[in-house]
Amino acid sequence: MVLKYKLNFKDIKLEDFRVYLFSLLKAFIPKKKIKDIKDLKEFIQKKSAWVSQVTLYSYLKTRMGTKYVLHFDNEELLGSINKAKWNIYSVALQDLTFFSFSYLNVFFNYQEVENAKKIYESILDDEIPNGMPLDVIEKGKRSFEERLKKIDWKTHCSNLPFNDSALSLYEWAPIAEELKTLDKKIVLNSMILKWDNIQKEFIKLIKF
Description:
The protein is mainly α. It has one domain. It has helices at residues 18-26, 37-63, 74-108, 115-126, 134-150, 163-172, 177-205. The termini are far apart. The model is unreliable at 1-15 and 67-72 (pLDDT under 50).
C-alpha cells in the first residue's frame, strides 16, 4: 500500500521514542565492571538493546519530515517498528554474545563457552513479559544454534563480529526499499560505529 502523505513526527506516538531517548541518556551513567557471568549477561542485554533502539529510531528520525513517501499508514507503521525492533534486537544479542565469549576465550583463556547459549536463551526468555514475540524468540534460538555450529572462538572477535546485526537493521527498518538502497552504506556504518564503542567499553570493563 503506497500512501499519499509524508511521514513526520505526528505519525509516531511519543511513547514509541521513550525507550530510545532513555537509551541515549543511559550513555552517561557510570559503567559497572564485568566480573562474572551475571554481569556479562546484564552487559549483553543492555548494550544490545541500546544499539538496536538507537540505530533504528535514529534512522527513522532521519527519514521523517522529508519529501519522500513511505509505504505504511499509522497502524502498519507502528506495528512494523515494533516488529523491526525485536528482530534487530535478537540478532544484536547474538552478535554481542559471540563477540564477548570469543574475546574471553582468546584473551582470558575462558573455556566455558557453552555459557554463551545459556545467556542468549535466558535473555530472550526474560523478554517474554516485555512483549517480545514468541516467533522471534524461536527464530533467534534457531539462528543462534546455526551460528554456534560454525563459530571459531579464536578468531570470531576480530573477524567482523557485528555484521549480522548491521544487516538486520538494514533488512528490518520499515523504510521503503528504494530509500533503503540509497541509505545502505550509511545505515550499516551507523550500527558498526556504535558497536565499535561497545567493544571498547567491554574491553575496559571486563575483569574476569
